[in-house]
Amino acid sequence: MSWQNYLQPKTLAEAMDALANAPRPIIPIAGGTDLLLDLEQGRHAPVQTLLDVNSIEEMTHLEITGDELFIGASVPVNRVATSPEVAHHAQALTEACDLIAGPQVRNVATLGGNVAHALPAADGTIALLALEAQAEIIALTSYPKGSGAERSRSAVTRKVPFQELFLGPGKSSLKHGEELIVGFYLPLTNYHQASCFQRIMRPQGVALPILNCAVWLERENDIINDIRIAVGPGGGTPFRAAQAEDILRGLHLNETTFESALEALLTQAQFRTSARRASADYRRHIVSGLFGDVIETAWLRAG
Ligand SMILES: Cc1cc2nc3c(=O)[nH]c(=O)nc-3n(C[C@H](O)[C@H](O)[C@H](O)COP(=O)(O)OP(=O)(O)OC[C@H]3O[C@@H](n4cnc5c(N)ncnc54)[C@H](O)[C@@H]3O)c2cc1C
Predict the structure, then answer these.
(1) Where do runs of H (alpha helix) occur along the chain?
(2) Centre of ligand 1 from the C-alpha of residue 120, in Å
(3) Which residue's C-alpha comes closest to atom 23 of ligand 1?
(4) DSSP state of 42
(5) What parts of the chain have a pLDDT lower than 70?
(6) Distance CA 69, CA 1 (A)
(7) Which residue's alpha carbon is nearest to atom 14 within ligand 1?
(8) Which of 34, 249, 270, 284 is the most exposed place for a label (fewest CB within 10 A)?
(9) Average pLDDT for the chain
């Protein structure tokens, strides 16, 4: 067996209690669509305890709170893809979640799992990056080290800028066995703001894309007031094309400004060759068309 205990807390308090006291190693499991394969195929070392986060009430909400949209980490991507609130305020995320896998996987795979797996081309992750999401993290506070010691149950939550969640391919900055993603906060969409997500897949591909791209932008008449561009995989962590964004801010979108932005994106991105999907050269070649389509769609939507 790849695990000995399976816990299903109903609240964050119960989950943190389990993290503090259940036999270690302990890791969270949501839909299991990444994790169970990793455990079964030996890419993840066996664990003592799996902590099922699907029933944790606070992590299943999808709602507007104040001037933000909150999406709990345990919300399945199918629910994200069909939510009218997400469609209105985060169209790129609707488009990304609608493309993830097939219906069976989408019904159980969660947004939190997509992000915590930390792959640089995960579709939900790339959309959240362009939408400038913040992650809410809950962490155990200090507890006595050493076997047998009764551990403290206290926990604190904090908001983290999305990019700070990633250290490298498949490596999140979350502290193993001590931290959970509670959910994601996204700014609400205002007038003349819009987003778009598209991807390029191998024809027979079911999992990660060859390349994906999400753009959020704000227009003021014919000028790009503000813009965020995310491309996956454009490096070891989910990639923001910050230099291209700097070039486009304050300018009209036309062939010349697009070409300058593309050049900046190609300079900054570190495309790599992946055995099953595409070469770095091929990615460099096709990013122009994908980026062009995505930015043009976002531009027209924001008009
Ligand atoms: C057939 C198939 C097709 C797929 N197609 C796509 C695709 O098109 N695009 C795409 O992006 N992905 C795809 N995936 C990958 C996968 O389905 C997604 O990444 C999914 O969103 C992962 O979510 P999950 O709930 O299943 O995560 P799990 O497998 O349960 O967990 C993944 C990781 O996240 C951690 N974790 C989960 N929840 C939390 C939390 N709340 N806090 C902290 N850590 C947490 C787990 O410990 C684990 O390390 C595919 C997978 C399969 C099997």
Answers:
(1) 12-21, 35-40, 77-81, 84-89, 91-99, 103-108, 111-116, 123-130, 242-248, 255-268, 280-301
(2) 13
(3) 113
(4) T
(5) 142-153, 205-206
(6) 39
(7) 207
(8) 270
(9) 94
